Amino acid sequence: MGTHAETPGAPSGPRRLKPYQLSIAIGSFMAVFIAVSGVLPLITEWHTDSPIHREVFGGIPGPLKLAFYTVIPVLVLWGSFRFADRIRNWERGAPDRRLTTAKNAKRRLADFRAGVYMRTLLRDSAAGLMHSMIYFGFLVLLGVTTVLEIDHQVPESLKFLHGDVYRGYVLVGDLAGLVFTAGVVWAIVRRYVQRPYRIRIKSKPEHAVILVTLLAIGLTGFGSEMFRIAESSASGTNMDHEKWSFIGYPLAQTVDGLAPRTLELWHQGWWIAHVLTFVVFLAILPITMLRHIFTSPLNMYLRDRERPKGAMKAMPNLTETALESFGASVVEDFTWKQLLDTDACTMCGRCTSVCPAHATGKPLDPREIVLKTGEVMAATAAHAPGGKVSPPLGTDSEITIGANSLFERITAEEIWSCTSCKACDEICPVNIEILDKILDMRRYLSLMESNFPAELGNAYRAMENQGNPWGMNQGDRAAWAKDLDVTVLDPGSPLTHEYLYWVGCAGSFDDKNKKVTQAMAKLLKRAGIDVAILGPSEMCTGDSARRSGNEYLFQMLATPNVEMLNGMGVRKIITQCPHCFNTLKNEYPQLGGNYEVVHHTQLLEDLIASGRLDMSNASLDDRITYHDSCYLGRHNDVYLAPRKVVGSIKGIQVVEMPRNGTKGMCCGAGGARMWMEENVGVKVNDERAREAIATGATRVATACPFCYIMLDDGVKGAGKDESQVKVGDIAIHVLEAIENGERSASALAAPLSQRKFSK
């Protein structure tokens, strides 16, 4: 889309209309069309003789008509140029392939419809309904006005707005006006009376201007209607058909008895006020957040991208590339789609409301990341093609941006507070990709500035020197399997087993998670699954390095892993760590590693459903809650498999935490936060642990080694020991249930003389 996509010196092909030129072309067409539509009726003088109709400019003198058809086209044209300026700023961004293809066209249209129909906003029923009332009410009112204008333009034989059609038209118009005005009043009450946190912390003067303008459009419309009906009635016209105007007609009765001339002046005054409010609307449309009326549906349409949902943007081989800068530090380092995001933002604050870092007192506010990027983009618009200055964003006067640097407004503390949980992206009603921006800026801080938390440096050195962030001896990777019948492959040996079991660093070295690995190995053996492990040959996948911006270290770890796996002929991999799962499945293909990767909860679900893993007697007398892993859930959309596995255990009561599924709360360890200290605010894992305990559960099921560690620590920190609340991976709970069921069955099968009875 942007100029960055053009190759210098390449032969020029047929000239294509650039996006900003398209904006101007559309605006010019609309302006000319409106102007011509004002002149045409003056020439033709077409009108209808039906007693049940409405003259478009009934009671409005010629000079006011001329002003209307002069000012409105000028403002439309002005707005198109202002939008063009914004598009020029998007073009500063790097290329980002968002092509519409036969494969994604249907999905894109569905995303677009979701935006236009307000489906994503309705996730919050109150706010969604309020926005829908304003949005659809306004659209219907615009349609009502357009229909009236069309009827005004066509010859007498083609006019349709009379008789019963007109009565229905009036009814629809008043209903739309009522819904629209009620929605605006609701929005005012919500923002300035109810004041929910996510809205209160970001209310700006421009929001008041927008709401007052919209309210004025609704009220002046009814005022104009009221005096139009009253004026016509006073002049002797039978207005009984206007009774279908269930708001305008009763209001007109309240001024019945005033002199016709007085009513005429009042009608003209309200009409002028109505037009002026619409003029103000057109004037502020491209320079306030109102522009999201256009940019948000466009952003939703462009949601689909070529890389998987859980994958970061690919980077070239850092040992061979000629690039001199990595990551994002200036506006031009983002893609044009990332810059479009800043204009699509509705400032609703949903991203802020679900951010675990923000909720626990950290300096990160995802909404601010988007808005601050937009502020820098607007303030440095001289860098845009043509040097066009963008319309103002309503930036606070005390904010100064002296250079084209994202870090003029965004601090390193904000960037490092992120857990990469993706909750902000998931809940955004207009599909803004916030996490990508944060991770791109982390790449710059890590690779170019070496500006990362000191404790993260310890993890980097451990990954570089020992091949794992725990800093443990690689020779001990298979120590957990000492007393188990598990095949450890020699380095470079071809894989002849059905699956490679990728244990992961936590499953190999962390004492808690060694138990998970052992439990899973036993379950796989019970199910007859043929697996082998790499043991000392397995190195960290590099997830923590990549999520913290250290792409160089990621490639140093991932490249030999890919070469080894490809050399061994690996095709199918089982993982128990969602971070390994995501990296192997979604990011190793960027390096030439294409494998069929399955998370252990997905495999367990399949084994249970097929009967290969016998759960017929598996039972636990417990109340259990499941914690969604961010990298299994939001990054890869795996929500049902773990729940089905848990649900297969007899005797248990499954309870959900208030925040679950797509709205689940992070444990606090993602995005390499596992290796960083948490010194500001409340610890994320403590907050999540309190939520789990509040369910009354006696067991907490996890599907991620990091989640296991964090929640177990949080539960114990809350004063609950294992006898009260047992935290464990799903594999642990399943194995315990099976073994418990076997013990019960064995006890029942024993002779009466051998059974133990309680007194």
Short recap of the structure:
This protein is mainly α.
- According to DSSP, the number of beta strands is 9
Largest sheet: 5 strands, parallel
Tell me the fraction of residues in β-strands, as a range. under 5%
Query: DSSP helix count?
Result: 28
Mean pLDDT: 90
SSE map:
Blueprint: H1 19-44, H2 62-90, H3 105-116, H4 125-153, H5 163-194, H6 197-200, H7 205-234, H8 248-253, H9 260-284, H10 292-301, H11 336-344, H12 350-354, H13 356-359, H14 366-379, H15 412-416, H16 423-427, H17 434-447, H18 454-466, E1 487-488, E2 499-502, H19 504-509, H20 511-526, E3 531-533, H21 543-547, H22 551-568, E4 572-575, H23 578-587, E5 596-599, H24 600-610, E6 623-626, H25 640-647, E7 653-655, H26 684-694, E8 699-702, H27 705-717, E9 726-729, H28 730-749
Helix pairs in contact: 1-2, 2-9, 2-11, 3-10, 4-5, 5-7, 7-9, 10-11, 11-14, 14-17, 20-28, 24-25, 26-27
